[in-house]
Write a structure and sequence with these properties.
By secondary structure, the chain is an alpha+beta fold. The protein folds into two domains: 111 residues; 151 residues, no CATH class. 75% of the residues lie in helices and 8% in strands. The protein is built from ten helices and four strands. It has a four-stranded mixed β-sheet, with helices on both faces. The longest helix has 44 residues. The radius of gyration is 24 Å and the shape is elongated. One of its GO terms (molecular function) is metalloendopeptidase activity. Keywords: Hydrolase, Membrane, Metal-binding, Metalloprotease, Protease, Transmembrane, Transmembrane helix, Zinc. Pfam families: Peptidase_M48 (PF01435). Belongs to the peptidase M48 family.
Length: 273
């Protein structure tokens, strides 16, 4: 009975962790519904890990229990004990891998944050959000979820974009804070750090990064205007030679009506001259 239950939990975990990502990545609706896509990917990961953890705990518990009684058939006792010991060793190794990967992920984030905040800057409140403007020629914008949330932009960003476009970028970064995207990003980073060669981990990482950007794009388009956000993404895409930003701009323009598409087309034409 115990072995059957462990097998059922393991099979369910395998389905969620391995099979469901293969199904989800084929879904074309993810660009239209990024919040739902993000939720499904991470629910599958977390629930799969919980089921796997439950199977491990059950295996170890059964091994401890069977060692104290002899009612079970000899063959089943040996199988349960062996499975329990193997599971205990695997669990110890898993905890070690996760701990090392977590420290690496958090260490990299702390380093990037301290490097950015060490630049000369001044602060101001923009729409209830604390915005730090750092003095660097590179166009930078990011959200830092500390002290109630901080958005960091650079003087280079303000030189590249007009005020309305800068406002759209700030709205985009504020959306990351409001939606709590750091947790999803850390989970995807940790998963990839633990399984760097696994296609499932790489796919989850890519999907998470794209989904949170699309969610923030939609939020910023509603609060700061689709035209302003689209044009900001285009300018940044041209400056950074990043086609992904241009595709995001086209998505916003198409999603929020003909006016956005017409304005985007005019802006694109003017920037290619």
């Amino acid at each position: 009975m115990t072995l059957a239950l462990v097998g059922a939990l393991t099979s369910a975990a395998f389905t969620l962790l391995v099979v469901s990502p293969r199904v989800l990545r084929q879904a074309r609706w993810q660009v239209r519904r990024p919040a739902l896509a993000l939720a499904l990917w991470h629910v599958a990961l977390v629930l799969g890990m919980m089921l796997m953890g439950g199977a491990m705990v059950l295996s170890v518990g059964a091994a401890v229990s069977v060692s104290t009684r002899s009612a079970e058939p000899w063959g089943e006792q040996v199988a349960i004990s062996l499975l329990g010991w193997i599971t205990a060793i695997a669990f110890s190794g898993l905890v070690t891998v996760i701990s090392v990967a977590l420290e690496r992920v958090l260490g990299a984030q702390r380093h990037n944050r301290s490097t950015l905040l060490s630049l000369p800057h001044h602060a101001e409140q923009v729409g209830g959000t604390l915005v730090l403007e750092c003095e660097t020629d590179e166009p930078i914008a990011c959200a830092i979820p500390v002290s109630g949330g901080i958005v960091v932009i650079s003087t280079g960003l303000k030189a590249l974009l007009n005020p309305a476009q800068v406002g759209a970028v700030i709205a985009h970064e504020s959306a990351h804070l409001r939606w709590g995207h750091l947790l999803a990003t850390r989970l995807a980073d940790l998963h990839l750090a633990c399984l760097p060669r696994a296609e499932v981990a790489r796919q989850l990482h890519r999907t998470t990064r794209l989904s949170i950007e699309l969610i923030a794009d939609d939020d910023a388009a509603r609060h700061a205007g689709a035209v302003n956000l689209s044009n900001a993404l285009i300018r940044l895409g041209v400056y950074q030679n990043d086609d992904t930003l241009t595709l995001r701009a086209e998505r916003i323009a198409a999603r929020y009506g003909n006016r956005g598409r017409r304005t985007l087309a005019v802006r694109c034409a003017s920037m290619t001259r």
